[in-house]
Amino acid sequence: MSHFIITTEKITVKGLAKLFRNTVWKLHRLLESVISDRGLQFAADLMKELNEMLGIETKLLTVFHLQTDRLKGQIKS
Description:
By secondary structure, the protein is mostly helical. The protein is built from 3 helices and no strands.
């Protein structure tokens, strides 16, 4: 299913989050996927803003990289 909503190119992340909440989220709730031609950071900022509006606490974790962490221990200053 797709929703097409008229907006401008100058819309902010906060504006888009409000637009999404008021038109799509109220009908379908949370997303299964996000497709954006504006880049990963824009999509991440959109989800952050949307979570804030909906009262969802976001807890982001960094991935444990065994090889990277081993190398850090071997580097001497």
